Amino acid sequence: MISIFDLAALLLTLSALFGWLNHRFLRLPHTIGLLVMGLLASLALVGLDLAFPRQHLYEDLTQVLRQVDFTDVVMNGMLAFLLFAGAMSLDLRALRDRAWAVATLALVGTVISTAIVGGAFWFAADALGQPVPLAWALVFGALISPTDPVAVLATLKNVRVPEALEVEMQGEALFNDGIGIVLFTVLVAFAAGSGGEATSAGGVARLLLQEAGGGLVLGVATGYVAYRAMRAIDDFPVEVLITLALVAGTYALAQKLHFSGPLAVVAAGLLVGDRAPRDAMSEETQGYVSSLWTLIDEVLNSVLFLLIGLEVLVLRFEAGGLVLAACAVPIVLAARLAAVSTPLLAFRWGGNLSARNVPFLTWAGVRGGISVALALSVPESDAKPAILAATYAVVLFTIVVQGSTLGMVARRTLKDMPGRDAA
């Protein structure tokens, strides 16, 4: 049994080492490079264990990694700080201009994708002779449908797209988690046979209002209190500390009140990021706050993507489920295409959605650590191994393949759009 400090030291050391190796030799985008190197190291360790079984290298490192509760680390640790960092950098006024497009993609798109992925995954599993109950297939649809805000924001750092489209993508990724987690919670309760009132139409509406509405209200309230506190002083150490306390306190309080923690910190980050630089922070304070949250974002992203790569050591995949996992990749891509196309066709009169964006938005639907964390939290059942394998396959494909080729897709599909910088 090793200490939390030893675990943190191991992960930070591996992140720094793999980051240096990637920068020197692979030259992949930083987060993608860390994931790839973590995955390659895991596979190499598995190979060494098969070649030299008496050394117990695989078993020793696996025991260390099993002490890292991936779901708890992501959902109750890293996520709050990463979402706040992303929300702080988003232009709130630009987001208001794209509010209809963002809301449509986050709400309608997530629901459509959940239904399509669930139905197609259930059919594919049955056709391959590895049946998964429809209820559990829909659970997979709910956890894999929302685009991951951490992965999307990390990917966008390496791609230049028109500002309006970038705001759409950032806004969708930051807000659709609340919708996805509510759907996931309801569908897990239904699949596990403990749904009760929570799975009725009224129960779902109440849960959505409580989780999403309560989280947004709480975030606005705590964000405003923090903004007023920062406005009353001019002392950068205290103001930096206020932003840290805002994130941790808001997320913890949201969980106690059964509100959406992710939506709460996003709302708080948007408010502070918009108002504080204008009249609550000096230029010196802005520099320190910006540097701190950029550093937090980079370090936590590095550790998270490394963990995703190393998780292959801990997860147990059945050989028979790998074909179904491979089928999940085109299923999720097709569902993403439908999710971004249907709102365009249904609400063409809105004027804020463009058909030219569909190919790029489809390919930019990156999934990441949140999907893996939700999959690991699924109750034990016969369907869980298939859900885990499919989730991991989709996450790896979207981050490594889609993430690394998104710049090329942007150059080919967005080249005639106004306001686009040369890539």
UniProtKB/TrEMBL annotation:
Where does the record place it?
Cell membrane
Q: Which GO terms describe its molecular function?
A: potassium:proton antiporter activity; sodium:proton antiporter activity
Q: How does it sit in the bilayer?
A: Multi-pass membrane protein
Q: Which Gene3D superfamilies match?
A: 6.10.140.1330
Location of the Cation/H+ exchanger transmembrane domain: 14-410
Give the superkingdom in one word. Bacteria
- Where the protein is mainly located, per its record? membrane
Which UniProt key words apply to this protein? Antiport, Cell membrane, Ion transport, Membrane, Sodium, Sodium transport, Transmembrane, Transmembrane helix, Transport
One GO location term (cellular component)? plasma membrane
- Residues that span the membrane, as ranges: 6-22, 34-53, 73-92, 99-122, 134-154, 174-195, 207-227, 236-253, 288-310, 322-346, 390-410
Asked whether the UniProt record includes Repressor among its keywords, one would answer no
What biological process terms from GO does the record include? regulation of intracellular pH; sodium ion import across plasma membrane
Family to which the UniProt record says this protein belongs = Belongs to the monovalent cation:proton antiporter 1 (CPA1) transporter (TC 2.A.36) family.
The protein's name: Na(+)/H(+) antiporter NhaP
